[in-house]
């Protein structure tokens, strides 16, 4: 029996990938593009001095909650809890509290913050839980491919939801038709909840809930032990070393994602109308990058693939830092050159996140997959909080100089990644798979 054979059927892999298409709608519409701006401009009163801070409270509150709960849920899975049931609960919570945003009227700030914290926390837990299925449906050699396909098709969900909300549903002018605009955005929250639920149905139909005999040492641990990172480092040093590298280069990615809108509008004077086609184009480049680098992962290995994607990011961020000089050098407008840099960065967005998820699965024993992806969720949220330093550095030293900090994140991440002894651990995991395959064949 070849250990390169995927343990999951094509239907099961399809069902798993459909969850990426389903849940991408939430983060695209609610967190990134539509509801955030709506909340700050219409839910928070115009005379409030805390406009952006309320939104920040919702985001950081949900991230902190997910940082605590994600490792605990991961350890719960390793104790024998049903991943499929946990995924169903996280999906249900996200759908219910997202649709509840329909009832948030102007001035209902804390009600909106409460619904956002519950829905976003549930979404983040669901992301970690669905990722923990990766070792169940893929061989270690093919994890890069399967992860890349799932992450890549997820961008289709972002495109569909953007079309559904921004073109078909929210059509009123917020200035001349504020009441209609508010009602349309409220209904769009219901629509996105239905979208999430419908597109997740194949996941719950096709994805199997495999029973793995729990590791007795994990069963005996209390759930709170999952938050003891020092003990986890002693038990799984290679995985934790990788997570330290992951923390810094992912902080670089998150800084660009969270502040690119502010950068382009303030530094380049680009309007929202100019940014929409760039967003759509980068979605396609991100989808291409995730899938293409997934196949590259299988050919050259996860570390080499990650180094290549970090290199792409360094070129893109350096290009942004030197945008005016480069534009003058090639004789074009800075805005025009930025489009090409954005497409390059887009290629790196999907690939670096997908390859990182793949490597977590490759490094992990199947009996510890829940804990590993729970920690992946912890460090993913930690990176997002670290990325918020961009705003502070930009206020003190300028946005252009803040880009140097982002470059530093990627360089530090690459240095730490180079120091992780991946080869030995991966050989051990492949040897374990071969022994299991041999025993099952016997």
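Sequence proposed for the structure above (442 residues):
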């Amino acid at each position: 029996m070849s250990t390169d054979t995927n343990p999951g059927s094509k239907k099961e892999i399809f069902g798993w990938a459909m969850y990426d298409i389903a849940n991408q709608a939430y983060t695209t519409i609610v967190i990134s593009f539509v509801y955030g701006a709506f909340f700050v401009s219409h839910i928070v009163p115009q005379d409030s001095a805390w406009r952006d801070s309320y939104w920040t409270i919702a985001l950081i509150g949900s991230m902190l909650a997910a940082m605590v709960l994600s490792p605990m849920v991961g350890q719960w899975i390793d104790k024998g809890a049903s991943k499929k049931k946990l995924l169903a609960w996280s999906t249900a919570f996200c759908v219910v509290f997202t649709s509840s945003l329909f009832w948030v009227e102007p001035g209902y700030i804390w009600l909106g913050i409460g619904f956002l914290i519950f829905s976003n926390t549930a979404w983040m837990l669901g992301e970690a839980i669905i990722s923990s299925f990766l070792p169940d449906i893929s061989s270690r050699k093919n994890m890069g491919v399967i992860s890349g396909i799932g992450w890549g098709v997820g961008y289709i969900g972002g495109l569909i939801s953007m079309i559904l909300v921004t073109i078909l549903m929210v059509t009123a002018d917020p200035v001349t038709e504020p009441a209609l605009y508010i009602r349309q955005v409220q209904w769009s929250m219901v629509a996105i909840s239905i979208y999430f639920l419908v597109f997740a149905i194949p996941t719950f139909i096709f994805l199997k809930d495999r029973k793995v005999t729990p590791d007795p040492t994990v069963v005996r641990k209390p759930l709170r032990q999952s938050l003891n990172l020092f003990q986890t480092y002693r038990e799984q040093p290679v995985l934790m070393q990788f997570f330290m590298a992951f923390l810094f280069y992912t902080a670089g990615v998150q800084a660009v994602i969270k502040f690119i809108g502010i950068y382009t509008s303030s530094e380049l004077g680009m309007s929202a109308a100019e940014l929409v086609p760039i967003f759509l184009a980068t979605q396609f480049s991100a989808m291409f990058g995730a899938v293409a680098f997934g196949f590259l992962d299988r050919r050259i290995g996860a570390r080499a693939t990650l180094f290549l994607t970090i290199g792409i990011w360094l070129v893109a961020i350096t290009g942004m830092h030197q945008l005016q000089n480069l534009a003058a050098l090639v004789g074009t407008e800075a805005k025009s050159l930025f489009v090409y840099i954005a497409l390059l960065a887009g290629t790196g967005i999907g690939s670096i996140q997908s390859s990182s998820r793949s490597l977590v699965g490759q490094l992990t024993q199947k009996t510890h997959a829940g804990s590993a992806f729970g920690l992946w969720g912890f460090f993913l949220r930690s990176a997002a909080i670290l990325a918020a330093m961009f705003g502070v550095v930009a206020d003190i030293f300028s946005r252009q100089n803040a880009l140097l900090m982002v470059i530093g994140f990627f360089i530090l991440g690459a240095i730490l990644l180079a120091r992780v002894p991946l080869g030995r651990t991966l050989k051990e995991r492949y040897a374990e798979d071969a022994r299991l395959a041999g025993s099952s064949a016997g």
